Amino acid sequence: MRRRGADHGATAAGHPVLEGAHVLELTMASVSGADAGATAGMLMADAPSEPGAVLRVGRDKAVCRLATPDDWLFVSRVHLEFLCGPDGTWQVTWLRGSHAEPSSEVVLTLAGLQPQPLPYGGTAKLPGGGSGELVVQDRSEPRSVNVGFYHDA
């Protein structure tokens, strides 16, 4: 197996992901009203499909591989967690924060299917070999965090 280029990231431990290995790839763009449709500033991360592998999205740069702007308070410190199960399948959870009601909404779209809301504190399984997008939408301003995913099964 060959190592991937630097643009594809590394495992959570900082090791390069190897070609041929099954991985979950994430891309993230923070979009405000005036920038809708722009992809500048897109971030990428990936992790091998190994039991216990995790990728997180949120404001806390210490624990999140994909970090949103610090002042985007509609995003929790750790908002979304992608976790690989014992069988190599991935799931995503909208982690509950410190507030009873969230200041955002999360919508999950799987390739070829209608968008579905992901409940606050809810979990959804991601299809192997599939792709889709999660959109974290601010309830008070025209801002969103768009997280695309591709599971190379």
UniProtKB/TrEMBL annotation:
Domain of life (superkingdom): Bacteria
Its protein name is FHA domain-containing protein
InterPro entries, alphabetized: SMAD_FHA_dom_sf
